[in-house]
Structures are given as structure tokens and as C-alpha cells.
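>> received
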Amino acid sequence: MNIVVCVKYVPDAQSDRTFSDSDNTTDRVGVDGLLSELDEYAVEEALKIVESGEGEVTVLTVGPDKAADALKKALQMGAHKAVHVVDDAIHGSDALATSLILAKAIEKLDPQPDIVMTGMASTDGSMGVVPTMLAERLGLPAVTFASELTVGDGTVTVRRDNDAASQTVEAALPALVSVTDQINEPRYPSFKGIMAAKKKPVETWGVADLGIEPSQVGLDAAWTRVETFSARPPRAKGQVVPDEGEGGTKLATFLTEHKFV
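>> returned
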């Protein structure tokens, strides 16, 4: 069972995230970044599947040089090898271009994967449409938002939970699967895993290696762009109401005046 996990390098949510002044794209260089938390669940699930049988896990990312840190974390968790698509032409790519790059990179892999796995979305852009776009480009069935996953004889079955009901969806392999943060508890890299990751192969490809023209990707090819941005204003201080026996009444009055009740 060969599994490719698509992962993303994202700005740390605890850092001061912003946009680049030059072109209004997300600043991925001037801030601390890491492997997207939602992608850790996909890496963990792929490792569990392979560890229960045979095969290997390849992690794939598209991004700047610093995106290698996301691959490093996945390799430390236990993935076997990695592919990093890095090229100046990719800067500013939207979801459509990203799915194109991922698809071409996966098609270049040998052997071809039985499962392409992703997180449910990225923690920076929340673009949950990329997995489905990728499945369409690869001609694979897409079983998305899996909170439970079972691999059978030539099939994959997932349970998809939402507020109203749970659905069981089955697809023939090869297939694309996106997983939610309910599916498992990602492992922490062990010291042994950290040391082993240093010797694992990481291939670096550019768009030319994938047969993609620079005009097909990047900010100029994007269907949307950020026109302007500004920092969020500082949070206003709240009103402190001393409770001298009338705190409940004052709270009720405040809620009523602001139409909360």
C-alpha cells in the first residue's frame, strides 16, 4: 500500500501573521511557520495504514524553501520519503493552480499511490476545495471529511460525521481521501524518528520538471487576489461593573440593551 500525503507549510497561528506589502500575498517567509496541524492527522492515518501491512508513505508539499520544515516534521513522524515542489513561479498560486501542481507531481511519482491523502483544509487559507479539485485532475474518486477510515480488498471505506447524521462512503482504490481532526491523535516525533529523518530522501522539483508552464501558476494566473489589507484594530477594553448587590440586574440590563436576550 503506497500512500501520498499532501501537506502544507503554514504561518504559525501564534505569530504575527500578515501579508506581503509588495503584492498582498500571505507572508510565508517573514514569519515562523510549521506543518499545518490538520495535515498531521493525514500523516498519522497514512502511517497507521502502512504499519498494519506493507508499503510506504510519501509526503508532498508545494511552497517556498522554508516549506521543507513541514516535510521534516512528517519524516520525523515516520514518513518514508518526501517531495518538495519549489519554484519562484509558484508564488501567489491559488487553489486551482495548487491542485494542478500537486496533480502533476503525483503523476510523476513511481510507483503510483493507492491512496492520496490530505487534511480537511489548511489552517491558513481554509481552502477545503483543494482535495476535490485534486481528485478531479487525477481522475480519482474523492471520499472527503473522513472521521474513520478502513482499507479493504481494493476499497476504502470512510465514516463521515456531521451535525445531522453519519454517512458511510466506499470507493474503489486508487482514491483520494481527506481526513478530519476526529480520526486519530497524531504522534509526536521520537528521538529515533528525528535522527532517522535526516537520512530519508527528499526530492526537489520545479514546475519545468512537472511539465507546467510558468504562466499556468503564480499570482498572474490566480482567479482572485487581495486588493488591500489592514491590521485588525486593537481590542477595546471591556466595561467593568462592580457587584455591590446589583450585578445581576446590571448584567441583565446590558444584555437586553444590546439585544442579546
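>> The first strand starts at residue 2 and ends at 7.
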